[in-house]
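User: Can you help me understand a structure? I only have the sequence.
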Amino acid sequence: MRYTLCNAMHILLTNDDGIHADGLWALEKALSGQYHTTVVAPDIERSAVGHSITLSHPLRITQIQTNGGWGHAVNGTPADCVKLAVLEIM
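Assistant: Let's start by predicting it. Here is the structure, written out as tokens:
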């Protein structure tokens, strides 16, 4: 069954490997045909700091096209990405 965007679940995709990670975009490609997906991930690889939040500098969001899709790169941790996605982007 294919869903239309008006009644589809909105799915947030993030990771700790960074916005350019092939696996993130493979998942986005697999889900975007049936669901409304939003990709928000760290601008660079940030493994081992997934639960950390940034306190020491301003967070920046940059909308970019990479690996065939549009996403939002954040100069923070994966937890920062989720908070910004839920509170600002989505």
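Now, to help you interpret it: Helices lie at 22-32, 78-89. The two ends are 25 Å apart (CA to CA). Let me know which part you'd like to focus on.
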